[in-house]
Amino acid sequence: MTLEQQPKSLRTFTVIWLGQTASLIGSNMTSFALTIWAWQQTGEATPLSLIAFFTEVPILIASIFAGVLVDRYNRKFIMIGGDTVAALSTVIVLILFFTNQLAIWHLYIIGAANGLFGYFHGLAFSASQALLVSQQHYVRVGAMGSIRTFGSGVIAPALAGVLYPLVGLIGILLIDIATFAIAVSTLWIFPARSTLVELQNNLKLLIGGRFDSVSSKENFGDEVTSDNQAFSPRVGIVYQPIPAVSLYASYSQSFTPQFGRSADNSAFKPERGTQSTSCTNSVSMKKYRSKKKEQ
Asked: Are both 160 and 226 inside the same structural domain?
């Protein structure tokens, strides 16, 4: 079954999976290359053990509460955050290496940051699978997850070992940055859920959006193709000056693909809609006072 023939949900997951697999391979290549560099600098095994120690300890601590945070906040942005931290750490290592200031203790800090945010990233990716595919594909998705985890653990050291003598540490770091760009770009097709931010007890902000990409091909005598992409934001705010009154305002856009042809034989363009709302909801003050007395 080709990618174009797969169900939409599985196709979306496959694209995201490819991007995240590439990013994981790049990160593991960097870790392996830095291990080689640390050994070349010290010739001792202790720094290598400490790098592994500082990478795993934050994961052990975060495992106590990480699941709650991943369930509470937008998983797409958690994944982007994990990829971004990994990319920033790679850029920092690159700058330090260029300026001849890279030291072993830098790797301890970077390992701790990558281990912590990488753990959150992995949890968010695993939890998102149920949102992207139907239940009939769970077994296939589980197998793809194993390929991503264990396959990258085999492929990355092999690639880094072959490329390190040719391109050095700088080349490996640049490859890692490139895989980060691939991973983040594929995540934008992930339909994001809205995120509710509680600024104060009586002030809440709703932020969300989704990116849609639709391609169609029709053959009725002659072939007509169309490609459409759009980002649809959603913003809302609720303010309660008193418990009996709620002030609400929102703004959102929609994207609906259209299939077929117009009179001039061109493909229909997708429909775009805009909705803005502002209203006041209030409970009668008499009813509100009676509730206060009951309390």
From this structure: no
Q: Where are the beta strands (DSSP E) in the chain?
A: 195-200, 203-220, 222-242, 245-256, 271-282
What residue type is assigned to position 53 of the chain? F
Q: How many domains does the chain have?
A: 2
DSSP 119-175: HHHHHHHHHHHHHHS-GGGHHHHHHHHHIIIIIHHHHHHHHHHHHHHHHHHHHHHHH
Cβ pair 140, 132 in contact under 8 A: no
The pLDDT tens digits of the residues spanning 133-183 come to 777 777 888 888 888 888 888 898 899 999 999 988 889 989 988 888 888
Same domain, 177 and 40: yes
Residue 224 in contact with residue 261, Cβ under 8 Å? yes
Tell me which of 169, 187, 205 is where a domain ends.
187
